[in-house]
Every structure is written in C-alpha cells, then in structure tokens.
Amino acid sequence: MKVLANDGVSQTGIDALEKAGFEVITTKVAQEQLANYINSEQIDVVLVRSATTVRKEVIDACPSLKIIGRGGVGMDNIDVAYAREKGLHVINTPAASSASVAELVFAHLYGSVRFLYAANRDMPLDGDSKFKDLKKAYAKGTELRGKTLGIIGFGRIGQEVAKIAIGCGMNVIASDPFMEKATIDLSFFDGQKASFTIETIAKEDILKQADFITLHVPAQKEYVIGKGELALMKNNAGLVNAARGGVIDEVALIDALDKRKLAFAALDVFENEPKPAIQVLMNPRVSLTPHIGAATQQAQDRIGTELADQIIEILVK
Known about the structure:
It is a single chain. The protein is α/β, with parallel strands linked by helices. Strands 7-6-10-11-12-13 form a six-stranded parallel sheet, sandwiched between helices.
C-alpha cells in the first residue's frame, strides 16, 4: 500500500510506516495535479498539513483513497464530512503540536513586551552609532508576571498556553463557548504536580480584562477579532494569533496599532498566506513568524508517529 505525504512527514513516521509494509512517497505534487497523481500511483493514503487541500473533487476523482490524514489540529483544508460519507477515514493529530504552539506564543509575548521585534531590526542598522538612543527607546519594557492573559479558545493548545502562563505567575482567564471549565495539570521536573481549575467567561469580558490576548480557535466565516472587539480591549494591550489566518481583521488591527490602541500584535498566521499583506509585514509594532507554530523537531516527530500508528491501526491490524 502507498502513502503520499504531500506536505512532508517526519522520518519517525516514515520508518514506522515502512516497517509495517507501506511505501511512503514524499514527492511534492502540485495541487492541480494531485488527483491525477493519486490515481496514476494508486495511492491509498494521502497526508497533508496546511498547504494541500483535499476537497470534494479530489475525493470523487480518487477511488483508491482509503485515508486522508492531517498532520496537525485543524482540518479546514479537508472536506471531512463528505469524505466520511464516502467511506474514507479522516485522521489528524490534535495533541501532537500543542506544546510547540504554546511555546511560540510565549516566545512572541516575551519578545514583544521587551520590544525584541523592533530592537532586532534596529541594532544591526544603528547599534554602533546610536546605542544610547536605542537603549533609551527600548527601556520601558513590561514584565509578564502579574499580568492577565486572556485565552480565547480553551482546547488542547489553549490549555497548554495556560500551563506556561501559570508558571510565569500570570493571571489566566479563558473563553470557550463549548466548555464551562477545565482543569490544568502541571507536572514539574522533580515529580511534583499542581492542578488549577479555570472557569471560562464571556469573550467580551476577556477583551475588557486581559492585558494580553491569545487566540486558539479554528478557522471560521466571521472575524473573531474585528473592529468592535479591538475597541473593547484595554489600551496598550497585546494580541497574539498562532491559530488560523482570517480570524483577525488585519485592516482593523493595523489601524488599532497605528492609533496606539494596542501596544503590539504577534502573528504566526495571516489572512493571505502565503502572501501576507505588506501593511502587516512592515508595521513596526508587529512581531512576525511564517506559520511555524508546530514546526519543532519534537512536534513533527510526534505528528509522524501518531499518523503512522493510526494508519497501521486502520489498514493493517
């Protein structure tokens, strides 16, 4: 049986699949050629991340397909319900990348409250000639400890973010329409453990109370944060999005930054990937990464292994 990992898969996943007798193909097939390739190679399993889509037309055109796998959480690039109606298995790895995304959120938060996104641009240009000026310009940083972090979307990733926030001494508040409360279990290096129960509150209360807000929601038709939501946020708050592009109105966001309503924004995902708006990329108050939330070696190993285990369970055992 053949597996096409069109957006790549870790070596651990390849090894596990090959050991079980699968042929793993990592050739990158262009979207418009995907159905033809699946048919010509008689592919049984196609694995994607966020770049490749598997829509109705591909599903209908490819009778050899048995499994569609998504390396990650969100499956908005797959017509999941339709695939399952047609008898295909659709799998993903919802927990594998949670810790990696949560750590990136805090990389952005720590960098933003100390202006690293700007200092790293300015120091190579003016560090040798305007050192004292730069020191003065970036001397009004903020500590995260004691501040309130608002988490919108309190699933696996949101809860991983909460764990780090609690460890940093932050006050954590969360909003999720599908959850009333969650218990956060922290495990420490010496075997000690601690648990915290966080009851969710309304999104509007998050917007009004939080010093920093981070989004962990799936793609949706309407903005989660638009002009009205930005107006409710505290002055000089910070906003982080490592979830999905399109859940923040980027035009309204840039306006809020330019008017100093927000102190900063940190974006790993964008409305127009892979060509984000130049106004976003060039804004001096935006901390930027190119959709790398799950891009750690550890997360990719977990993703590959989990996908392989599920495929073997379905097709071999």
